[in-house]
Amino acid sequence: MNKLILSIAVVASGVASAKGFQKPGDMALALFNAYVPKIEKTNPGQIVDGVQAVSGDIDGDGLDDAIVSFVLLEKAGGNAVVGGGKAIYLQKHGGMKVVGQFPEEPCGMRVDKIIDGKIKVQGFECMAPYMKLEWEQDWVFKNGKVRPAGDRRPAK
């Protein structure tokens, strides 16, 4: 499901201009929020929720980029997460452009921060209220793809 959602986003979204925005996360969120109706149309009966952006230099060019995470919930209600994704936005030529996504992921995976090109990911217990931290892992963006940079570690 994530591939379909963000494959369309890569083609459909342009580059968000830096005008009116100062933070990379804000620029990425503006692009993503404009795309939410298309995600919801592609996933009938579901709504996008829990949208958040984490900023930091992903590709080593010295400019802060962003990862926008979201979940899909049933429109009818409840707290069951039925899907979601993480879109990767790189800062290029004064704007942000969506360039990819995280691969299918386990339930409860969250981007915590981006430091020195490493995407710090945390894994939470996959049951509501999704608060018990179980593991941590570093990921990197190389050759246009995001991948784990090592094994999962037990949470501290």
Model description:
This protein has 156 residues and is of the alpha+beta class. It has one domain. The protein is built from 2 helices and 10 strands. It has helices spanning 2-12, 24-42, and strands at residues 15-17, 46-56, 65-74, 81-92, 95-101, 109-115, 118-124, 133-142, 145-148, 153-154. The strands form 2 sheets. Strands 1-5-4-3-2 form a 5-stranded antiparallel beta sheet, with helices on one face. Strands 6, 7, 8, 9 and 10 form a 5-stranded antiparallel beta sheet that branches.
Q: What's the helix and strand layout?
A:
Elements: H1 2-12, E1 15-17, H2 24-42, E2 46-56, E3 65-74, E4 81-92, E5 95-101, E6 109-115, E7 118-124, E8 133-142, E9 145-148, E10 153-154
Antiparallel strand pairs: 1-5, 2-3, 3-4, 4-5, 6-7, 7-8, 8-9, 8-10
For this entry, give a set of tags.
five-stranded antiparallel sheet; single chain; disordered N terminus; 156 residues; globular; 2 helices; alpha+beta; 10 strands
Strand order of the largest sheet: 1-5-4-3-2
Extended strand count? 10
Which value, in Å, is the CA radius of gyration?
A: 15 Å
Number of domains: 1
**Low-confidence regions:** 1-14
Characterize this entry briefly.
The protein is of the alpha+beta class. It is 19% helix and 47% strand. It has helices at residues 2-12, 24-42; strands at residues 15-17, 46-56, 65-74, 81-92, 95-101, 109-115, 118-124, 133-142, 145-148, 153-154.
